[in-house]
């Protein structure tokens, strides 16, 4: 019998933090889930650290061959999912014990919804909280999907949060062809908006996930590249869905996205002074070298 939820974890050089990530998932109050971890040929001992979890019948460990960056590993691990719902947790992020329980209840309550997201907090490389709850762009409760997708474009940032903040209906994800990797820096937001063109969104106004950041993840060149990909994504979404976005929406969203990239860059500079980087630098969310 298939589990209610498949939690899928793509890892790449996350040896220093992956055990904490896995334990946060295994501590979930909802127990009807499977945990599938795909390691993208890490070289830092990540695979070896994962072996301690093989005795748990809920856990499956896989190896993804080198190449293809984050989209390849995200696709690989998600293809193994068997549950009604899918949550992707990057190999250094965390979820709260009640995250699965509350998000499954929300999607069960709203059968028209294909995506549920909560707010999240940001933590540094050492696991220390550095922000309060963030996300959702002012949305609360059940929201028409196209309204939520438009809101994400207009504010110029990923209001749905990183994948650990979200739970998706697996049938809907399969129907759109899985994770959309044409703009790898925004693979999550791009996929979420594609889902919401044909389904509704549920926003839970509490922090149920933690997103780990490291000062080594960002640079001026990456800020420029990411903002360019966000703008490309905005225009692709508009072209594929006539009537969803106005010209004014695109102008405002593109302007906000360019500005937000440099606000984010400034935050990472501050973080570098605060924590001098550290664990968590080998992430699989921004097109890693693997």
UniProtKB/TrEMBL annotation:
Gene3D superfamilies given in the database record: Spore Coat Polysaccharide Biosynthesis Protein SpsA, Chain A
CDD domains linked: Glyco_tranf_GTA_type
Key words of the record: Transferase
InterPro entries in the cross-refs: Glyco_trans_2-like, Glycosyltransf_2, Nucleotide-diphossugar_trans
Domain Glycosyltransferase 2-like: 6-126
MF term (GO), any: transferase activity
PANTHER family, A to Z: GLYCOSYLTRANSFERASE (PTHR43685), GLYCOSYLTRANSFERASE 2-LIKE DOMAIN-CONTAINING PROTEIN (PTHR43685:SF2)
Protein name: Glycosyltransferase involved in cell wall biosynthesis
Organism: Terracoccus luteus
């Amino acid at each position: 019998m298939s589990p209610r939820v498949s939690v899928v974890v793509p890892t790449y050089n996350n040896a220093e933090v992956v055990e904490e990530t896995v334990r946060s998932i295994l501590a979930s109050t909802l127990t009807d889930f499977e945990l599938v971890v795909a390691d993208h040929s890490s070289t830092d001992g990540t695979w070896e650290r994962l072996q301690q979890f093989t005795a748990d019948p809920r856990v499956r460990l896989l190896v993804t061959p080198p190449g293809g960056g984050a989209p390849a590993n995200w696709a690989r691990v998600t293809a193994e999912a068997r549950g009604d719902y899918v949550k992707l947790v990057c190999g250094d992020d965390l979820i709260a014990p009640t995250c699965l329980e509350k998000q499954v209840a929300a999607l069960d309550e709203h059968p028209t919804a294909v995506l549920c997201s909560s707010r999240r907090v940001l933590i540094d490389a050492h696991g220390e909280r550095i922000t309060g709850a963030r996300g959702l762009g002012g949305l609360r409760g059940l929201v028409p999907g196209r309204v939520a997708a438009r809101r994400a474009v207009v504010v110029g940032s990923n209001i749905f949060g990183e994948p650990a903040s979200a739970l998706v209906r697996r049938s809907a994800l399969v129907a759109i062809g899985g994770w959309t990797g044409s703009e790898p820096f925004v693979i999550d937001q791009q996929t979420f908006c594609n889902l919401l063109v044909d389904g509704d969104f549920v926003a839970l106004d509490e922090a149920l996930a933690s997103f780990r950041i490291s000062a080594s993840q960002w640079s001026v060149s990456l800020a420029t590249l990411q903002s360019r990909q966000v703008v490309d994504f905005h225009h692709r979404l508009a072209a594929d869905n006539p009537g969803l976005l106005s010209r004014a929406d695109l102008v405002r969203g593109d302007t906000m996205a360019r500005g937000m990239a440099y606000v984010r860059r400034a935050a990472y500079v501050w973080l570098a002074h605060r924590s001098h980087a550290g664990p968590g630098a080998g992430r699989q969310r921004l097109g890693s070298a693997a």
